[in-house]
Amino acid sequence: MILYVDANYLSPYAMSAYVALREKGLAFELRLLNLQKAEQASAAYAAISNTQRVPALVDNAHNFNLSESSAIAEYIDERYRERGHSLYPANISARAKARELQAWLRSDLQHIREERPTEVVFLKRSPAPLSAKAQTAANKLFHAATQLLQPGQQHLFDEWSIADTDLALMLNRLVLAEDPVPEHLVHYAYLQWQRPSVQDWVNLPRQIG
Amino acid sequence: MILYVDANYLSPYAMSAYVALREKGLAFELRLLNLQKAEQASAAYAAISNTQRVPALVDNAHNFNLSESSAIAEYIDERYRERGHSLYPANISARAKARELQAWLRSDLQHIREERPTEVVFLKRSPAPLSAKAQTAANKLFHAATQLLQPGQQHLFDEWSIADTDLALMLNRLVLAEDPVPEHLVHYAYLQWQRPSVQDWVNLPRQIG
Ligand SMILES: [Ca+2]
Ligand SMILES: [Ca+2]
Ligand SMILES: [Ca+2]
Ligand SMILES: [Ca+2]
């Protein structure tokens, strides 16, 4: 298998797909696209990725290409059901909440994503204080996370799922910028961040531009 | 069951959830939120919708609330597997491509969404010509759709899926603005739009503001 990711390992969605493959115990080769040079918009990559974004998975064994990190996680969980750690809860309602969270984190909270880019998380950049709009988004994030996580709870559902990694990344945009974050969410994000599959992504070699 | 949607029936995601429920043959009551009055940000609605967005589903039979339209479609397809029309393809690879498309349409192409809001589709507003950025996004949409749809093909996969409705809505932002769209995609979007579940949403009573 091949996973296409951004060359500086900054895409939160590339990270999500990387962690998903690692958790499933699937062997894969990383291939790098330089987004600053718009390599994702090349004709060669458009033939691999319908959406011309990272990540993209090439599953040669099934002659199959797929983009969008949440679709990639669902695909490998279904295609390789017996392998490694399940990426989604088995319970229908819990699985629905995992999908709700993944969809939401990818399509809302844009002020957090803009003011707390992943350079804050992976390159320890120190950003300006949050704008009022970003603080509103942060409060919305804390509300949603608190609905799903009791103090002391280590995973969203009975066991780890890929939604934990996605939520921890979003929280760590704020935690690592030293923005105020409720204590139990800081603790949750910290524990999620220790997961070996996540740490392997965190420790990939990045060029500080 | 209860489905919360925007009071003017303009949200493409509310439409997607509405069509999904109709296709499954599930009975539901519509409840309306006035987004201009920010009713989705009220404490009452935050207790129903974790993400404080429309649509939200309340499945009283399972004491379960869920937001995000793609998660809602997956949930009702799994929970009510024997009912109505399947919302996703049975084949693992086809199902993955349906999810890829749903995730992409919800998180990219923002210039099309901004310059061709659903008022163009549902209220026949005539917009200004596309900017260069929106035209680039439109070309990307045509590329992706053409990869998935041969000329004359009426559905993305062997049978109708909810991804067809989502793609047809995105294409119709352009078609109904009289922007240039490849002929076979115009035809596909037109046929998808005739589906009774879609027409019922199109014909809901809207106030022209
Ligand atoms: Ca780079
Ligand atoms: Ca864990
Ligand atoms: Ca209204
Ligand atoms: Ca059809």
TrEMBL record, chains A, B:
GO terms under biological process: glutathione metabolic process; L-phenylalanine catabolic process
Keywords linked to the UniProt accession: Transferase
Keyword hit for Transferase: yes
Domain GST N-terminal: 1-84
A single GO molecular function term of this UniProt record: glutathione transferase activity
Nucleotidyltransferase keyword on record: no
Pfam families referenced in this protein's UniProt entry, alphabetically: GST_C_4, GST_N_3
Name used for this protein in its record: Glutathione S-transferase
Native source organism of the sequence: Methylophilus rhizosphaerae
